Amino acid sequence: MYNYTISKSVAANTEYLKKTLRLNKNFDIIYRCMQVGDKTIAFFFVDGFCKDELIQKIMTFIYNIDENSIPDTAWEFSKKCIPYTEVDIFTDIEKVIEMLLSGVICTFVDGIDSCIGIDARTYPVRGISEPWKERVLRGSRDGFSETLVINLALIRRRIRDPRLCSEILSVGERSKTNVSICYIDDKVDKEMLDSVRNKISDIKVEALTMNMESLAECLIKRGGLNPFPNFKYSERPDTAAASILDGNIVILVDNSPEAMILPTTIFEILEEADDFYLPPLIGSYIRLSRLSIVLASLMVTPLWIFFLNNPELVPHWLDFILITDDITVPVLLQLLILEIGIDGLRLAAINTPNMLSTPLSVIAGIVLGEFAVKTGWFNSESVFYMAFVSLATYTQPSFEFGYAIKFMRIILLISTYFFNVWGFIGGILLTLILICSTKTISGKSYIYPIIPFDAKKLKRKLLRLRLNKL
């Protein structure tokens, strides 16, 4: 890409970088030149990625060096003249520009045809706080931030094992986004690791614009007809560390506060940290409750439609589920409007200032529901069942899985309303087919340990068991 070889002349290197980096248009790329004896030393760095005090200390140290004892090789110069720990030598101009734009201080010295990189990056970072979507009743309260190095440190704090590996790759022709692959060397599936590494290395895009989602779409090129997610995402370092210890691969992307865990099955998507922070009996109850509620959120409204279409099949003790008031709007249309309306309230809550989001959401839900029933648009039963479905959606941690269940519920509603019992059966079969046909990134079953069947693993997925001892 760059047709230039690093020269021993600082002036030539400086002229090339000034032109390539467009220093006359970029005020935040700093060029600083200093003279020590007959040697010219030039520094290039991005303002905001490096601490001014550190750069000043390095320059002061170099100024105090005897001008006659400045080494003539990059390696010797880095050892004797750079009082810092993270120092590297670059001989390729493309690598120099990539590291410079990622925050490394690039240093050129007269008589040396290499670049000395000082990795003193201090990226802007927000505080390490608990992820709002994955809050727990007990346990640690830290969460990933948008800085890759800090996220890796949070994992290494929990796994102090020399066999923990964190490979670094660069993705994006323009963005050069850092992507880290984390795994335990003696527990990971090497075949899957090679496959993931090759897939990431072969990605040809300009930039990972949406960070983790852009990477996910590049890893699995599939059609948009199957809504079930192929990956589990987590902003919790304890969840990521536990997955690595289970033999999984965790992918971290710079500028993203999420970890991608793979391979992922449907049972792992439905797991939460609370399952493990609470005692086994309570954790098992919570996990089974979550699975039951997710299943209920899929089935409740289609079953209700089915019984409304077939009132003769309703037992006497369930007569109260039938609508006794006048129906002015078809029930199917009521439920579909409410499905969209709930998403409207959710989007409104996201875009409402924090201090107003909770009261406005409550007021909107109560007022809209009350007046919709009184004006005859909706029946109270429709509002009640959709309120349950709305709450049930938030019992599991994955947004993607929640919307997958939503789409399948809408298909099941429509097919049941128009085709009665055969539509209900067909909708359930379609849901099962889509779940069973979904594959993990390794190509293995999405519903393991059911297919292939593994009784011991299935027990561990359904129940919260005690941790195994070594």
Oligomer: single chain
Beta content: 5-15%
Spans of 5+ residues with little confidence (pLDDT < 50)?
none
Rg, please? Answer: 29 Å
Q: Give a short account of the largest sheet.
A: 5 strands, antiparallel
Kindly summarize this structure in a few lines.
By secondary structure, the chain is α+β, with helices and mostly antiparallel strands. It contains 16 helices and 10 strands. The protein has a 5-stranded antiparallel sheet, with helices on both faces. Strands 6-7-9-10-8 form a 5-stranded antiparallel sheet, with helices on both faces.
Write up this protein.
- There is one protein chain.
- With about 475 residues, this protein is an alpha+beta fold.
- Helix content is about 45%, strand content about 10%.
- The chain contains 16 helices and ten strands.
- The strands form two sheets. A five-stranded antiparallel beta sheet has the order 1-2-4-5-3, sandwiched between helices. Strands 6-7-9-10-8 form a five-stranded antiparallel beta sheet, with helices on both faces.
- α5 packs across α8 and α12 crosses α14 (about 380-395).
- The mean pLDDT is about 90.
Features:
alpha+beta; 5-stranded antiparallel sheet; 12% strand; 470 residues
Summarize the topology.
Elements lengths: L9 H11 L8 E8 L2 E8 L5 H12 L10 H8 L5 E4 L2 H9 L3 E5 L5 E4 L29 H9 L7 E8 L5 E8 L5 H12 L10 H8 L12 E3 L2 H9 L3 E5 L5 E4 L3 H4 L4 H4 L2 H30 L21 H21 L2 H21 L5 H14 L5 H39 L17 H8 L8
Antiparallel strand pairs: 1-2, 2-4, 3-5, 4-5, 6-7, 7-9, 8-10, 9-10
Helix pairs in contact: 5-8, 11-14, 11-15, 12-13, 12-14
